[in-house]
User: Which sequence fits this backbone?
């Protein structure tokens, strides 16, 4: 059976965690393919909430093998803390596998992340300061340390000395900071973290392909989202990996023909954390309403998310570049109390109507949304379990988005709980 991908289609926090958990029910393997603990994926099961950063969202099921793919950057301290948190709450993490090719986040990556942000001043990106950018930069510079290096103290020390030879110059001479002590850092990683991480290191490629060849269900879980993608997002206000569906190939080690179903997760409105262009952003009381009712505050960082109306121009682009087979529309219930809903169907750029995302970012900064208005439904839909039970205006809103975006909306979220969804294909 070919693999399924879950990919964010906006600027993150669309509800990937909830829908990965939902779809994982029918799977055997869930593989995270990129990003690191900049992600915060929330699952609510029987009223209990779990906020995951690194461990794949299928972990709550006993039958799932969670795998951290080669495309992920792993902070072992965070990984171990997350495993401890889950174990203390009765979730079994013993089957967790981490690709030996995944790169390690080191404390100096986090320090550099914060220093770069400070250096950018008002132009800062608003990163999560988790060291993600500097860790991927070291990977590209070919001086990164990998998870497999934890198994060989000699190689680990050699590589650490190479990277610190450069990084300590940057820390001391560019940023006037103290150098990193290689002995102390090696002791922390090799003596404290390695003994607990090593039992989980595995050959992720063989695990994933073994499952595919045996006809098992493999779910590839993306973090972040299409418009935070290093290549396809609103650069430079992006993350440093490839969250798009193509990133699932490189980050999990599968080819495009190994993938069949590609589920794009889209919020029924849009949010963004951190800096960068956002054509449909709302600065009024409707925006405040979406933030308060939708509890739009970062899962891990607690930052207020910027709210806006649904943007079909962006979504059309996301459908194209991820080759989405379907959309999962989340948080439809958050729109319950609104009398009128707006959907951006095109942009006005210098007096011209534009229906596809402009390739030049200056145009995106200038874009004024052209909205179509739809009536709200004025009732609580959080207990609805069947599409036919939705108020007509809610069903019409979904059909309108489907028509505008060019992909079918199959799953619809009506609340944070695992059971609060509708399957329009059932
Ligand atoms: P992710 O990063 O894409 O996994 O999303 P987050 O977990 O950061 O943010 C999504 C938030 O919305 C979480 O608090 C979820 O519990 C919640 N959520 C997901 N789907 C729905 C939904 O359909 N309705 C409501 N009300 N909340 C939802
Ligand atoms: P999930 O998986 C929302 C944003 C940051 C910042 C930019 C770069 O929960 O959807 P980074 O620390 O990655 O270098 O920050 O990306 N960002 C996210 N925004 N959800 C996320 O993850 C994010 N991960 C990173 O706010 O604007
Ligand atoms: Mg999140």
Assistant:
């Amino acid at each position: 059976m070919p693999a399924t991908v879950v990919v964010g289609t906006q600027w993150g926090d669309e509800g990937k965690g909830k829908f990965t958990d939902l779809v994982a029910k029918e799977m055997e393997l869930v593989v995270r393919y990129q990003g690191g603990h900049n992600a915060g994926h929330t699952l609510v099961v029987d009223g209990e909430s779990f906020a995951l950063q690194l461990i794949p969202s299928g972990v709550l099921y006993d039958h799932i093998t969670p795998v951290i793919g080669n495309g992920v950057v792993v902070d072992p301290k965070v990984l171990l803390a997350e495993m401890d948190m889950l174990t203390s709450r009765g979730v079994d993490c013993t089957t967790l596998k981490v690709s030996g090719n995944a790169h390690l986040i080191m404390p100096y990556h986090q320090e550099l992340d914060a220093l770069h942000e400070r250096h950018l001043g008002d132009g800062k990106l608003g990163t999560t300061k988790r060291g993600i950018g500097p860790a991927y930069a070291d990977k590209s510079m070919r001086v990164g340390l990998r998870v497999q290096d934890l198994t060989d103290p000699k190689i680990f020390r050699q590589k650490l000395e190479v990277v610190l030879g450069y990084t300590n110059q940057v820390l001391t001479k560019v940023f006037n900071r103290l150098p990193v002590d290689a002995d102390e850092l090696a002791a922390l990683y090799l003596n404290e973290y390695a003994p607990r991480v090593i039992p989980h290191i595995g050959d992720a490629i063989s695990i994933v392909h073994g499952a595919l060849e045996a006809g098992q269900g493999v779910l590839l879980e993306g973090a972040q989202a299409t418009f935070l993608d290093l290549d396809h997002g609103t650069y430079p206000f992006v993350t440093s990996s490839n969250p798009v569906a193509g990133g699932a190939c490189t980050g999990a080690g599968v080819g495009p023909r190994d993938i069949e179903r590609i589920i794009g997760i889209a919020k029924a409105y849009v949010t963004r954390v951190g800096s960068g262009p956002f054509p449909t952003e709302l600065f009024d009381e409707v925006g405040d309403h979406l933030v308060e009712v939708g509890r739009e505050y970062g899962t891990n960082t607690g930052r207020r998310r910027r709210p806006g109306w649904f943007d079909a121009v962006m979504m059309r682009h996301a459908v194209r570049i991820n080759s989405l087979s379907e959309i999962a529309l989340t948080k439809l219930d958050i729109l319950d109390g609104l009398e009128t809903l707006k959907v951006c169907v095109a942009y006005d750029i210098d007096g011209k109507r534009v229906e596809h995302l402009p390739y030049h970012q200056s145009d995106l900064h200038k874009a004024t949304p052209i909205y179509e208005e739809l009536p709200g439904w004025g009732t609580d839909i959080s207990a609805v379990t069947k599409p036919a039970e939705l108020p007509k205006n809610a069903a019409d809103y979904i059909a309108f988005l489907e028509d505008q975006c060019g992909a079918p909306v199959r799953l619809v979220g009506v609340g944070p709980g695992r059971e609060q969804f509708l399957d329009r294909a059932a």
